[in-house]
Amino acid sequence: MFTVPRLNSPRRTGGPLKPTRAPLAAAGALALLAASALPAQAAPTIKAAPPAHAASTAAPTQAADANKNPGPPSDTKPGKGAHSLRTPVTGENFYFVMADRFSNGDAGNDQGGLGPDPMVSGFDPTRKGFYNGGDLNGLLDKIDYIQGLGTTAIWLTPSFKNKAVQPEDNSAGYHGYWVTDFTQIDPHLGTNAELKALIDEAHSRGMKVYFDIITNHTADVIGYQEGARTGYVSKDKEPYRTASGEAFDDRDFAGRADFPKLDAETSFPYTPVLDPTEQNLKVPAWLNDPTLYHNRGDTTFAGENSFYGDFFGLDDLFTEHPAVVAGMTDIYETWIRDFGVDGFRIDTMKHVNDEFWQQFGPDVLAYAKEHGKDEFFMFGEVFDTSKSFTSQFTTRNEMQAVLDFPFQDAARNFASKSQDAKQLEAFFTADDWYTDADSNVYQLPTFLGNHDMGRIGSFISADNPDADDAERVARDELAHELMYFSRGNPVVYYGDEQGFTGPGGDQDARQTLFASKVPDYLDDDLLGTDATHATDNFNTGHPLYAKIRELAQLTKEHPALREGAHQNRYASDGPGIYAFSRTDAKDQREYVVALNNSEKPQTAAVPTYIAKRNYRLLYGNAAEKSTTSADGKLTVTVPPLSAVVYQSSGRIPREKTAPAVTLQAPVSAAAGTSAGDNGRIQVTADVDGTSFYEVTFEARTPGGKWERVGTDDTAPYRVFHDVSGLNPGAAVEYRAVVLNNAGRTSVSTSRSAVVPDPVLTIQQPAEGSTVQGNVEVVATADPEKASHVVRFERSIAGGPWTPIGSEDDSSPAYTVADDLAALDLADGTEVRYRAKLDGSNVMSNVRTVVVGAAPQPDSVTVAGSLNSEMGCPDDWQPACQSAFMTFDPADRLWKLTADLPAGQYEFKAAINGSWNENFGQDGAPNGSNIVLNHDGGPVTFRYSHASHVITAG
């Protein structure tokens, strides 16, 4: 891959960085392509390929008599087969716990040393938005309970010292996301010494401890001279300016040592100010410098502002600035060195620029390994259900893993909603998006619910309102069976093992395991028990605790169920059986897992690798033995809402010869997919055989050296090669090497492709919308590069295209303002817009609008999961008048301010009291729901019927 410039530090030194623009987001591109693909640049350093599977670090020896290639190889050197990568962290069982809500081991720290006033100390055990009393000593006292679940790793929510109370939010920092001191444990939770004692005890038991960390914001300390918690100002309206007043785009300097000097008075759209009593509140001291923050106002979590805006006033760090990268790196390296932390879960990863991760991730990982943490592991929160997007953080951005939000969505749909089993099959087929040379899907942490979105018990209760307790428990167990038996590292959210539910996410999903005094928690209906939150809930006999313990034990005894290749086998049309096999590349014994999400027994003939072989039952209520047919099919009957697991009586027969392998024509990964990635090329191999195979994909520029892209161990065999760092039109040559289960290989002929041109897309204004006055035209590029320069053109009434405004090089959104009022166009005139990438022939789609005042609807509703909090009888009520917005003729916007409790909500705009016309994310008709992460308090919704965009902030 391209070498990303590193920051100078006492441990890291290097030459000066070039002042000219150079794309840093090249992390997935092979260095072998560099010399011919990058004009006027030295060839970057080639990143060494990772070791193969731990079971066999060397590539298998080729059998000369069995390796006749299907055609002449394109290189004189034959390709080497390899095992699919398995990192040390592919067999963890995580227990995700919020220390304040687990167990109160020391009542003396409840007030954090701040006194009895809850609005000062933040402690009020009767309120769900305040500290409730749990602490690190409570975790230590109950560590037997945690380990008894089969836990191998404890994952703590952020535990650093927080601003105890933010009065604007009428809430406390019990959750850990309002950090003021990154060097100290929050006094409400304990001390640094008590944390060390917990880590040491966990290590003595063979368990790891992971920290939940924050790199992009602190507590709300900085105010603005222009007003508190103000609206976002885009970079196009107000660019950043150097201390001397010169406008610049921060993306041109992201992570670089020559980042311009800034001044609080002149560099930002808002002037940062600090309360004199809080000027030195943050630790380390560099965090008190207001020029190290974005200072652009509150985000609406969409577009450019999702990278630069404040999260409900939380001070958003300038992560493009090298001082922030270096500072955050040093903070977290200290916790590794001094406390022996085993890994990090990283908050809000998708809201941080790529260049930050491309430096922070490798540096922290290298530091951990220097300090004996060979299994150190980091995974990020990327709240999105599209694998083409979430996988960019493990490929392009060099992070080890991300939390598997797509899995959570798929698991709920299957186990709780009993949706079509083929949807789950398609979900796992798309796992190839994560395959590259040093990571893949097997190391992703999988989960069913969490502290933001809500619990699996809550989802099951909401999805099945008429179900009895037995059915709800069965669905909960089915979801856990899917999570434990499929690929990935399962995460149990504390309390799920006790059947916790709750009416929603955020505070409603943060109940205490110790006896609660919160009225809102006391009426929860727990699954599998008559207990309530009025008593402690550490019942190791609870059916869900027992089930999770059983699943952990079985997968420990049969590690192939955790690390083996996950091969789709069978999926019913509609609700029914989804079956897959797990096979370890070394042991070669096949495990067949079948799950039934229907409410009736189901029978299926499941394909396997082995014909006429006995398979014995390991798990579930089914026949003790079953034999495969002559064509290798295993007949299984699965009871309703449950799972069965069978194990083959012997290994898969060894093949005497390697099969032929053929490459399909490589194509852009954006071609033919609704959620693709134009910065990657999809490469697919067809293998002429039916046994267990592992296919390694390699790439090079013509005549260059072959380098590994990644190895896939499940059909269909694919990789999505990241070429975002290469110039459009650069030639890339691919080949595939198949490794059979006897260690024999076969190599395909090569096929060539060229790096596709970027795709420009007009995002605003909405197609067909009515516009007048000053029209903001916004375009985005895929893949995005800081070096892009975009120009805009306009056509009036079918006339010629003419330039408008000036070029825009301010990524990640390109904007121009078109003053139609100056043209004095008649109402009804058609205006078309398009964007062009400077220095290329790349042209965007055409966006057509009509001049005139947009006719306003009779009503606009903020319709979503927040309606019941607004006073509606239920959620998602487009006709609820309590959620109606009011039209403001001054700015022609519809507005509604609502006082909402903290939580995570989804919403969209519903027109005229029904769903017949509605608009979602980015103003799209019938578009996706908009996500609102709210800390509690007033929030103002704004809707424009000209653009159809609705925002909250």
Structure explained in plain terms:
By secondary structure, the protein is α+β, with helices and mostly antiparallel strands. The protein contains 17 helices and 49 strands. The strands form 13 sheets. Strands 14-13-12-7-2-1-16-15 form an 8-stranded parallel sheet. The chain has a 6-stranded antiparallel sheet with strand order 17-18-19-24-21-22. A hairpin with a 5-residue loop joins β21 (614-619) and β22 (625-627). The chain starts with 33 loop residues before the first helix and ends with a strand.
Task: Name the features.
953 residues, alpha+beta, 8-stranded parallel beta sheet, 6-stranded antiparallel beta sheet, 17 helices, 16% helix, 26% strand, disordered N terminus
Helix content: 10-25%
Beta-strand percent range: 25-35%
Uncertain regions spanning at least 5 consecutive residues: 1-76
Biggest sheet descriptor: 8 strands, parallel
What's the total number of strands? 49
Cα-based radius of gyration, to the nearest Å = 28 Å
Query: Strands of the largest sheet, in order across it?
Result: 14-13-12-7-2-1-16-15
Which word captures the global form? globular
Number of helices: 17
Category by helix and strand content: alpha+beta
Mean of residue pLDDT values: 90
Q: Kindly, what is the distance between the CA atoms of the first and last residues, rounded to a whole number of angstroms?
A: 39 Å
